[in-house]
Design goal:
The chain is of the alpha/beta class. It is 52% helix and 13% strand. It binds guanosine-5'-diphosphate (GDP).
Length: 297
């Protein structure tokens, strides 16, 4: 994760660290290299600009350049701003405190890892929050999508809503909420249908399901490997449905990190979880500070 970005930044910092004195020009030279590293990592241009401006403004302050360890101070500023870029100091967790069944609606494009993430999250909620979860697949487009969720449910020992062939998503959502109430379920996860592209039919379906189920959380699942596309998809969804957060999948294979680094500022939505593998326990709560530390090595 973030390996290539981490290597590039490491090189820049080696040039700064341990120097007794820094001139303004040294900072500007270092920031030029950081800028290239971020662009190569596929971070969105406005986000890169904002980052470089913020770091430069703070770093060329007299207090920093005249301090005993100017290089270290610049690196600390980069670290602070990186945390900010990733979403700030605070980790934004799930809001599960409403009256049960709390509904979590999972949305996203086909192949993003939505169904897998639904099962991962159900497992996470049971293990980390101690809540009873149930899952329901509303994906009537892709053959076997409902079966896939059922099989995953069996693997993690989580209830799934029985499949009724021919039922439409809104009706499945209604039935799922009713069933969750009857079974005293704490958290109901709705795995909505994916599509190849963001289109009107998809958005209309999301809105109808949302109206029926009143979700506490609407989580968008996007594939980090698609870089800026992931951010653009998130932007399109943000304009249509009230997202409460993002799950970035395939972070295990993402050496660049552009989606993770751009998401918050481009969409205004927090990344809540990172998918880090195919296994059903490969889901991590997203902590900006820890991720920044990982990038800075
Ligand atoms: P959906 O069409 O969005 O529901 O996608 P699926 O959940 O079926 O996932 C598609 C493929 O991506 C499956 O083979 C998953 O095992 C894989 N996958 C999902 N999340 C991750 C992840 O975080 N890391 C890796 N390496 N693979 C993942």
């Amino acid at each position: 994760m973030f390996d290539s970005l981490s290597d590039r930044l490491g090189g820049v910092f080696d040039g700064l660290r341990g120097r007794g004195a820094l001139r303004e020009q040294d900072v500007r030279d270092a920031m030029r290299e950081v800028r290239i590293a971020l662009l190569e990592a596929d971070v969105a241009l406005p986000v890169v600009r904002r980052f470089i401006d913020a770091v430069t403004e703070r770093a060329i302050g007299a207090d920093v350049l005249k301090s005993v360890t100017p290089g270290q101070q610049v690196i600390k500023i980069v670290s602070d701003e990186l945390v900010e870029m990733l979403g700030g100091e605070e980790t934004v967790g799930l809001d599960l405190e409403a009256k049960p069944p709390v509904v979590i609606m999972m949305v996203g494009l086909q192949g993003s890892g939505k169904t897998t993430s639904t099962a991962k999250l159900a497992k996470f909620i049971r293990e980390k929050h101690g809540k009873k979860a149930m899952m329901a697949s509303l994906d009537v487009n892709r053959p076997a999508a409902q079966e896939q969720l059922k099989v995953l449910g069996e693997q993690i020992d989580c209830l799934t809503l029985p499949i009724v062939q021919g039922q439409q998503p809104v009706d499945i959502a209604r039935r799922a909420v009713e069933s969750a109430k009857l079974q005293a379920i704490d958290v109901l996860l709705l795995d909505t249908a994916g599509r190849l592209h963001v289109d009107e039919a998809l958005m209309a379906e999301m809105k109808a399901v949302s109206a029926i189920s009143a979700p506490q959380e609407v989580l968008l699942v996007v594939d980090s490997l698609t870089g800026q596309d992931a951010v653009n998809v998130a932007k399109s969804f943000t304009d249509e449905v009230p997202l409460t957060g993002v799950i970035l999948t395939r972070m295990d294979g993402d050496a660049r990190g552009g989606a993770a680094l751009s998401m918050r500022h481009v969409t205004g939505k927090p990344i809540k979880f990172a998918g880090t593998g195919e296994k059903l326990d490969a889901l991590e709560a997203f902590h900006p500070k820890r991720v920044a530390d990982r990038i800075l090595g």
